Amino acid sequence: MRRKAGLILLALAVFFAALAPLTRWYAFPRLAKIPPGQYQDMVLEAKDATLLDYGTMRARTVPKVTIVQTLKGNVEESEKIEKSADRDVVVWDSLSYVAGPDGEMVSKIPERYIFDAHTQEPVNATGEMVDGDAVRREGIEFKWPFLTEKRDYEYFDAQTRATAPIHYRGTQDFRGVEVYYFEQTIPWTKVPFPKELPVEGITAESVEKTGTTRWYTTVRKFWVEPLTGAPVYGEEIHQEELRGGTLLGDRAKVTAFAGHVKMREDYIDSTVDLVTSNRTLVLLLTSYLPWGFLTIGVLLLALALHLEARSRRGPAPEGTADPAPVSA
Question: How far is CA 269 from the centre of its chain?
Answer without folding.
Answer: 17
